[in-house]
């Protein structure tokens, strides 16, 4: 991707020096200005490494670029976000879009959400918008309610306090460095990855890049802002965020970043279980589940987060960089085809898929039994609908998966018995996935694998997943109306409405077992 340059500033110091640098004495004689710099001391003598962990290299260029030349227009910004931006700007405050939304706009992707950074104090934001509250104690932000949308607004002052806590507090500013650049730059240094360290002023139509984020976007690289070991020790959740970003964008990790993801993988077990569930949901519910699972496996994270599924991959002889597929990955690839960052599913759906697949691993089934089970889920347990549809299936199934066995089940009674038995196995699999003792023994046959008893699925969420399959064993539910066709109500799906979740579950399972491309 060609990156147009409006103003480009570059430091001339070697990054091995324990300093971070600021602009000084910019000459306007050319589009690439010659810059003399004065180093700015940083606490703990931390330095920013922009050389992919390879040693020496130049500090990143500071760029100010035209958003229009980058292909960004205000129409790409969601209407609720535009209303908040306009409200703050009219009161005389500086406003920027920051973080992943700027990255996604540059990539012409639909952002999952938009984050606003403003010069206003959070208390001033409260006065501007009627439906607004401050949330978070450690790192407070404002939630501004516009219709049914929540727009997050952070303040330079609040993020400045966060910046001081993490040990990278700049103690002085060179006289010739503009205060505005200095403030923006300090805020960017508190970000996790360079590609998330971009700022976009939608009114001046300028994108600010102080960390080399645009170059990393061009190179499809995920790189930490500060040295990766320090970054992940400071906040190990960045490991999971990095995997999520790389999986969603199909980016690679910079060498140093990749090294310390592997080196510090075990640290994620210290995270709050709710936080782990949140990060896993971001990975598996927004259209990049297969890529995320492959990365979790590649970097040794799957054994910690999902030991049962890691055991399955080991038993399949699946290598860390394996490009082959299997039934687990195909199920999630099929799910990915139905989702997107702005069209996610509820977490109960991907947990249901995990439990269903484990049940098939524990006891492989005839493809028609699997079809009957998925149809029963879709139809709310109506056995007459199940038999009427299953007996019409004539297309071949995918023969690559050992989880599927040809048993030639001829009688309806035998088919329904097998279907009920599968439902029992799915329920048992769900219980095992939420049992710390069982999870801790999932990798017992592989002594070199890390031991993990991590269970991040809450009892309440497990009950919600169980309700998806309940109809198979209990029979037809009163007043349940099955969906027809393949149209998806994404609002209901994101909220976890049972009818919609069952609809998508059945589609994913059926299309995995009987892929459309195998039709005659």
TrEMBL record:
<dbReference type="Pfam" id="PF01743">
    <property type="entry name" value="PolyA_pol"/>
</dbReference>
<dbReference type="GO" id="GO:0003723">
    <property type="term" value="F:RNA binding"/>
</dbReference>
<protein>
    <submittedName>
        <fullName>Poly(A) polymerase</fullName>
    </submittedName>
</protein>
<dbReference type="GO" id="GO:0016779">
    <property type="term" value="F:nucleotidyltransferase activity"/>
</dbReference>
<keyword id="KW-0694">RNA-binding</keyword>
<dbReference type="GO" id="GO:0001680">
    <property type="term" value="P:tRNA 3'-terminal CCA addition"/>
</dbReference>
<keyword id="KW-0547">Nucleotide-binding</keyword>
<dbReference type="InterPro" id="IPR043519">
    <property type="entry name" value="NT_sf"/>
</dbReference>
<dbReference type="InterPro" id="IPR052191">
    <property type="entry name" value="tRNA_ntf/polyA_polymerase_I"/>
</dbReference>
<comment type="similarity">
    <text>Belongs to the tRNA nucleotidyltransferase/poly(A) polymerase family.</text>
</comment>
<feature type="domain" description="Poly A polymerase head">
    <location>
        <begin position="95"/>
        <end position="223"/>
    </location>
</feature>
<feature type="domain" description="tRNA nucleotidyltransferase/poly(A) polymerase RNA and SrmB- binding">
    <location>
        <begin position="251"/>
        <end position="312"/>
    </location>
</feature>
<keyword id="KW-0808">Transferase</keyword>
<dbReference type="InterPro" id="IPR002646">
    <property type="entry name" value="PolA_pol_head_dom"/>
</dbReference>
<dbReference type="Pfam" id="PF12627">
    <property type="entry name" value="PolyA_pol_RNAbd"/>
</dbReference>
<dbReference type="InterPro" id="IPR032828">
    <property type="entry name" value="PolyA_RNA-bd"/>
</dbReference>
<dbReference type="GO" id="GO:0000166">
    <property type="term" value="F:nucleotide binding"/>
</dbReference>
């Amino acid at each position: 991707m060609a990156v147009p340059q409006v103003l480009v500033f570059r430091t001339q110091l070697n990054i091995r020096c324990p300093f971070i640098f600021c602009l000084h004495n910019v000459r306007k004689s050319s589009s690439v200005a010659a810059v003399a710099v004065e180093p700015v001391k940083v606490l703990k003598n931390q330095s920013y490494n922009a050389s992919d962990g390879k040693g020496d290299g130049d500090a990143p260029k500071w760029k100010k670029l035209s958003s229009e030349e980058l292909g960004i227009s205000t129409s790409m910004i969601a209407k609720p976000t535009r209303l908040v931006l306009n409200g703050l700007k009219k009161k005389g405050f500086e406003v920027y879009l920051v973080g992943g939304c700027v990255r996604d706009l540059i990539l012409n992707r639909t952002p999952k959400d938009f984050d606003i950074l403003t010069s206003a104090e959070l208390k001033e934001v409260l006065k501007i918008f009627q439906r607004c509250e401050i949330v978070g104690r450690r790192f407070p932000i404002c939630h501004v309610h516009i219709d049914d949308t929540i727009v997050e607004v952070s303040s330079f002052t609040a993020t400045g306090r966060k910046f001081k806590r993490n040990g990278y507090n700049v103690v002085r500013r060179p006289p010739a460095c503009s205060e505005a650049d200095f403030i923006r730059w300090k805020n960017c240094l508190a970000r996790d990855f360079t590609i998330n360290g971009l700022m976009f002023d939608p009114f001046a139509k300028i994108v600010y890049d102080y960390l080399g984020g645009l170059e990393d976007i061009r190179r499809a690289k995920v790189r930490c802002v500060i040295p990766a070991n320090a970054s992940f020790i400071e906040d190990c959740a960045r490991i999971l965020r990095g995997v999520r970003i790389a999986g969603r964008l199909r980016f690679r990790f910079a060498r140093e970043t990749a090294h310390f993801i592997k080196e510090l993988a075990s640290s994620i077990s210290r995270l709050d279980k709710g936080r782990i569930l949140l990060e896993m949901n971001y990975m598996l519910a927004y259209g990049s589940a297969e890529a995320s699972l492959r990365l979790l496996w590649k970097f040794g994270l799957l054994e910690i987060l999902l030991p049962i599924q890691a055991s399955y991959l080991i038993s399949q002889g699946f290598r860390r960089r394996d490009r082959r597929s299997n039934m687990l990955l195909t199920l999630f690839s099929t799910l990915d085809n139905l989702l997107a960052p702005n069209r996610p599913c509820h977490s109960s759906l991907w947990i249901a898929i995990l439990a269903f697949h484990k049940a098939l691993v524990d006891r492989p089934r005839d493809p028609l039994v699997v079809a009957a089970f998925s149809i029963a889920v879709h139809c709310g347990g109506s056995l007459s609908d199940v038999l009427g549809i299953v007996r019409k299936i004539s297309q071949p199934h995918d023969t690559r998966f050992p989880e599927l066995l040809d048993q030639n089940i001829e009688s309806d009674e035998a088919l329904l018995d097998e279907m009920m038995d599968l439902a029992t196995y799915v329920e048992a699999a769900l219980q095992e996935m939420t049992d710390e003792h069982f999870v801790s023994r999932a990798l017992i046959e592989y002594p070199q694998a890390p031991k993990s008893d991590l269970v991040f699925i809450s009892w309440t969420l497990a009950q919600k997943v169980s309700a998806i399959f309940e109809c198979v064993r209990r029979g037809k539910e009163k007043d349940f109306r099955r969906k027809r066709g393949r149209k998806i109500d994404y609002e209901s799906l994101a909220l976890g409405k049972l009818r919609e979740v069952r609809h998508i579950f059945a589609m994913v399972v059926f299309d995995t077992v009987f892929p459309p491309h195998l039709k005659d």
